[in-house]
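FAQ: What does the model actually see?

It sees only this:
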Amino acid sequence: MKTVKGGYFGRLLRVNLSNQTIKAEAIPDKILIDFIGGRGLGSKILFDELPAGTDPLAPSNLLMFLTGPLTGINAPATSRFSIVSKSPLTGTVGGCSAGGHFGLDLKSSGYDVLLVEGKSENPCYILIENNKAEIRDASALWGKSTPETTEFLKSVSEPKAGIACIGTAGEKQVLMASIMNETNHAAGRGGLGAVMGSKKLKAVVVSGNNKTPVADQAIVDEVAKKWRTFIGEAPLTKDILKEYGTPALVKVINHYGTFPARNFNEGVFNDAESISGETFKELYFVARKPCAGCPIACARITQTPEREGKGPEFETIWSFGALCGVNDLESVIHANYNCNESGIDTISAGNTIACAMELSEKGFLSEEAKSQIHDLLGHDLKFGDTEAIVKFSKVMGNAEGFGATLGLGAARMAEKFGHPEIAMHVKGLELPAYDPRGLHGMSITLATNNRGGCHLRSYLVSTEALSTPFGINRFSSNGKAGLAMLYQDLTATIDSMIACLFTSFALNPDLYAKLVSSVMGIEMDGNDLLKTGERIWTIEKLFNLREGKSRADDTLPVRLLEEPFKSGLSKGYKIEFQSLLDEYYNVRGWNHEGIPGKEKLVELELTAEGGFL
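And it is asked to produce this:
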């Protein structure tokens, strides 16, 4: 039997808020070897412990904060952490990753995982300091913004502690509520902030001086040095992300005609220059704000004449900008600040506002909804409304008036008004800033993503648009099913070790495997790592199948499948989606309905005998 020699303390802290109990538990070596940590470990625990059909906002749902074997070993871009739960927005396995330094602080507290279950009678927060934990009252913090909460908790605990908290959106269980750490880093997708709010858990505060053990320090140092070299030489991580941050993508994606505008009705935004990375840097940039130990430093501190904060990132600029037909970057920045303060996922927020704009212009809103909008704006809602994105981003966080309707997310809102086809989502999760009509590989990755419409679980944009590490015909389906699987499995391991996804612009599976194996003291090469990623991806799929998801959910909005673009460099192309989905299932060893067969489960050791099913 293999044993884990480093990367972990092997300790999970289980906090039950219903009966106010706290206990440490050992994490079996086999689980750490088979699922690595972070996202993979969280998905495994969720599959094992959460009964099928559990209401995501019920006390019995689990909420986990997880580190990985690379957390705290002084390798570049490894300070992130994962949060895993059942998503209230999608009903699928929910998982997020966030940067900053909270992950390092959680690890240094002496625990690899914090698992929260139950529901507190009163608002509370969890404090963990050097192997000791307690539940404290947070009644005075309920109703406070994320900056206010963070400032107060720093004043009553270790000043350099890592703090993850929710704002008013999480408290009110808004279905797109995020969990914020260090004020401006968001675990945003899927509404896990609402899970935190449903448990009356306002915050988690972590600190300590425990050092992550490693199996072979000499090899760890050697490989970490190679990581730094490759990250420092790759064009995207060396120059572009350093210079402009993620907003550098605005003009690139718009050029290809794959920058969704006006709720995915168009693929080119004619005012892209006004919200571009270059304009962003010239007018609002203050300073780079790297995550702990990160040489890339993609994040930005920004300032308008009225306010200062972090961001927005590329996806946020797109969702409040082009997707809503808005060309006023300052308004986009204020919408971003509003979302960070109340704790809302900016991708879902912008998408849902764009959906509401189209519903309004087509006359599909109810009289009550129109009245609520008039009370807030003084006029009808339409694309290009800069006032709307700022005011809506504010009222969504407080679930006020039409803000409460927007807080349902695009899918539920469009269904409420009788036009579900207007919502641009997969499995209930609003889509990101890449229109698959011009990036055909992205069509299969978005459709089959286990957490819904997300680009961060298989970023084929890198090959289809950025030619990294190689270029590929973006209008062809040739080989895209296998490539999607490769990227999905690799990303699953990156999220589990835990490293920043941007490292994949510079590193390969063998380099990832070398560092993980030297830290944990297990033999692993690139192929072994990818097989582990396949295991993680498959157990997430099994969770979703158990929750009633099927082939019918592995699809895209009808608009993207049946309405080719009428202008731009992606004009006229149509995705042959069903045949691509068939090929994808076949490559994965799943049947026509997308169900993994017995032979595949045996291969991945996901068998009844192994205790997984």
